[in-house]
From TrEMBL:
Domain REM-1: 26-100
Location relative to the cell: Cytoplasm
Highest taxon listed in the record's lineage: Eukaryota
InterPro entries the record matches: BRO1_dom, BRO1_sf, HR1_rho-bd, HR1_rpt_sf, PDZ, PDZ_sf, Rhophilin-2_HR1, RHPN1_2
Domain PDZ: 522-579
GO biological process, one term: signal transduction
Keyword S-adenosyl-L-methionine: no
Main localization (coarse): cytoplasm
Membrane-spanning ranges: none
Record domain BRO1: where: 111-460
Gene3D superfamilies: 2.30.42.10, alix/aip1 like domains, HR1 repeat
Protein name: Rhophilin-2
GO cellular component: cytoplasm; plasma membrane
């Protein structure tokens, strides 16, 4: 039975040219994982209610001076805190429900720890985004209803992602989309008024903020959580399944580490740097455990060099779990980490260290150095098995002396039995772990195997020859490492790309309302040039041309021509549109940045069209008060001469801005169309 809904049927994927986002799992599907998430959501609501009651009681306790009221409030607080503790224990029970996330095949493997998804409340983007589009971008917000609906649908789908690569892609798509939304609609100087609420994955305590960073951080956490669930449900009876599990846990560690380094001030405790540091260690420890399973999957031969390798591999797993348990035992993580998690980590640390001692004992007791064996290689391997040999033992002498090997081997067996007994004892003290039958069976079998091995070689005088088994050096052929998230592999299209290029049309730039410019070309002369691209800017504007008199300004961005959107068009494409309207009245919409300094290009830039001499643009600043009103001022030529090369040479003097008061020469011959220069390579663009 599948719990995944089919993709939406808005358009076929091939027709859209890109992969439209898929829906998440059906929240009503009666699968183990969906039931678990539903239970988690209910517990989160109950915890939120209890937290509010506790906060209200604490406020009343601080405000009142009546002793009778204080006593009653203290009594109520004790009940509320008791209820909170019970609810958190129930949530912890869900967090350790590892059997729900394990592979469905019957496997004789120790369960792994997945992370549960963070729950959230619904968010309505429609009203506030529409208001912002109208206020900030001066556009009709009703034209963006579909885009806003797509954003809300995508967020809703991310609340129930499928536990596979499609779920990862869905969450990653929304995370990248949030980057576009943040730049489009969330100015750094003020809050938008959208409240995001997410529940702590470990404690169930809700956190609410108007900051979009909480949303982004929580989505990242859920990406890591889905990776852990992919890892735990992989088939660990095949090499391919084990490789997928290692990859999933390493990617989970990479995502959580990226979250720790990027979002350093998240208010939710499960995303605090201390907790994320522990979670990263836990993912890498589980990846290292699966690497050990991958090496041992073909079977462990009772051969000297194989047993040396397996002893060091098992010691490596035990070491990383011991370090993880030490990190879990530190404040402030210790207070909020699930007790069952910390106990399982301790159990695994003891279990794998016991396995390492068992392998070491087997290679010492069962394998004697024979004349045909590689003496130097075995001596080297045995010396590398320990940091230092026990007192009175040397590698070569131990290999040659049967009694020394047996004595040292039995010391390893005693250590293995002690560690196995400790792992069984720790597991029995935790109610949650006692209910995991496969874990209890594996620990019991490992303990009996070590005990049987020791009983076969036990002697009455063993207590007279007791030596401490040395620690086994940890070594692995594959170190578990974090894999950084590769968001660039997921291609995402900005829902609101109609607003224009994100580099300009963003929330941190303030724009004027669009201005309508009605003008005509005069003898094929526009009166200005264009530069930039997507959108293009008016450049080198003749202050006496028709466009300037209609209200155009140098530095304005052209956003539409004849009601055709031009925000994504290049210079050549805009020129082609203007060429098509050469003999008609042109209706053009332009916008300007509020900060004129950022929208205007340097006015001292030089301008040349195939001429040696250049002209400063400072003369644009004309002091009209100095104009001799008695002189008739004829309209001046545009800065851009659209004539042929011959005409350019004749009218070279007109390329400079004419001095104020100088009459404009009369041009009898009609100039060629300005669009003849579209294909030329010049500094105009």
């Amino acid at each position: 039975m599948t719990d995944t809904l089919p993709p939406p049927t808005r358009k076929p994927l091939d027709e859209e040219g890109e992969c439209y986002f898929r829906k998440g799992c059906n929240p009503l599907a009666q699968t183990g994982r969906s039931k678990l998430q539903n239970q988690r959501a209910v517990l989160n609501q109950q915890i939120m209610k209890a937290v509010r009651m506790r906060n209200g009681a604490e406020n009343l306790l601080r405000a009142t001076t009546n002793n009778k009221v204080r006593d009653q409030v203290l009594l109520e607080l004790s009940y509320v805190n008791s209820d909170l503790q019970i609810l958190k224990e129930e949530l912890e029970g869900l967090n350790i429900s590892v059997e729900v996330y394990q592979n469905t095949e019957e496997t004789f493997t120790i369960p792994l720890i997945p992370l549960g998804l963070k729950e959230t409340k619904e968010v309505d983007f429609s009203v506030l985004l529409k208001d912002f589009i109208l206020e900030h971008y001066s556009e009709d917000s009703s034209l963006y209803e579909d885009e806003i609906a797509d954003l809300m649908d995508l967020r809703q789908a991310c609340r129930t992602p499928s536990r596979d690569e499609a779920g990862i892609e869905l969450l990653t798509t929304y995370f990248i989309q949030l980057g576009f939304v943040e730049n489009r609609f969330f100015p750094p100087t003020r809050h938008m008024g959208i409240l995001f609420t997410w529940y702590d994955s470990l404690t169930g305590v809700p956190v609410s903020q108007q900051n979009l960073l909480l949303e982004k951080a929580s989505i990242l956490f859920n990406i890591g959580a889905v990776y852990t669930q992919i890892g735990t449900r992989s088939n660990r009876q095949t090499q391919t399944g084990l490789e997928h599990a290692v990859d999933a846990f390493q990617r989970a560690a990479g995502v959580l580490n990226y979250l720790k380094e990027t979002f350093t001030h998240t208010p939710s405790y499960d995303m605090s740097p201390a907790m994320l540091n522990v979670l990263v260690k836990m993912m890498l420890a589980q990846a290292q455990e699966i690497i050990f399973e991958k090496i041992s999957l073909p079977g462990i031969r009772n051969e000297f060099f194989t047993l040396v390798k397996m002893a060091q591999e098992a010691s490596k797993v035990g070491e990383v779990y011991l370090q993880l348990h030490s990190a879990m035992s530190q404040e402030p993580v210790k207070e909020n980490i699930p007790y069952s998690w910390a106990t399982l980590v301790k159990v695994k640390s003891d279990h794998y260290r016991a396995l390492a001692h068992y392998f070491a004992a087997t290679l010492l007791i069962d394998h004697q150095l024979n004349p045909g064996d590689d003496e130097d290689q075995q001596e080297k391997c045995l010396s590398q098995l320990y940091d230092h040999m026990p007192e009175g033992f040397t590698p070569l002498a131990t290999l040659k002396n049967k009694n020394d090997r047996k004595q040292l081997g039995k010391s390893h067996l005693r250590k293995a039995i002690a560690d196995h007994e400790e792992s069984v004892r720790a597991a029995s003290l935790c109610k949650k772990l006692r209910n995991i039958e496969i874990l209890q069976e594996i620990l019991s079998v490992a303990h009996k195997r070590s005990h049987l091995k020791y009983s076969q070689h036990e002697q009455d005088d063993d207590f007279l020859n007791l030596i401490d088994a040395p620690d086994i050096t940890s070594k692995t052929e594959q170190e578990a490492e974090m894999m950084a998230p590769q968001f660039s592999k997921v291609v995402v299209t900005d829902f609101f790309q109609k607003l224009g290029p994100l580099s300009l049309f963003s929330a941190n730039k303030r724009w004027t309302a669009p201005r309508n410019i009605h003008f005509t070309t005069e003898e094929g002369d526009l009166g200005f040039t264009l530069r930039g691209g997507s959108p293009v800017q008016i450049h080198f504007l003749d202050p006496y041309c028709s466009a300037a008199l209609a209200g155009a300004k140098e530095g304005d961005y052209i956003v539409s021509i004849q009601d055709t959107d031009c925000k994504w068009l290049t210079v050549s494409e805009v020129m082609q549109k203007l060429k098509a309207l050469e003999e008609e009245d042109i209706e053009m919409k332009v916008v300007s940045l509020m900060d004129s300094a950022s929208s205007m290009h340097n006015k001292c830039a030089t301008y040349s069209v195939g001429m040696q001499k250049t002209y400063s643009m400072i003369c644009l600043a004309i002091d009209e008060d100095k104009i001799d009103k008695s002189k008739k001022i004829s309209k001046k030529l545009s800065f851009l001469s659209w004539g042929t090369n011959k005409n350019r040479q004749k009218s070279a003097s007109t390329l400079c801005l004419p001095s104020v008061g100088v009459a404009r020469p009369q041009i009898k011959k009609k100039l060629p169309s300005p669009f003849g220069l579209l294909n030329t390579e010049s500094s105009l663009y």
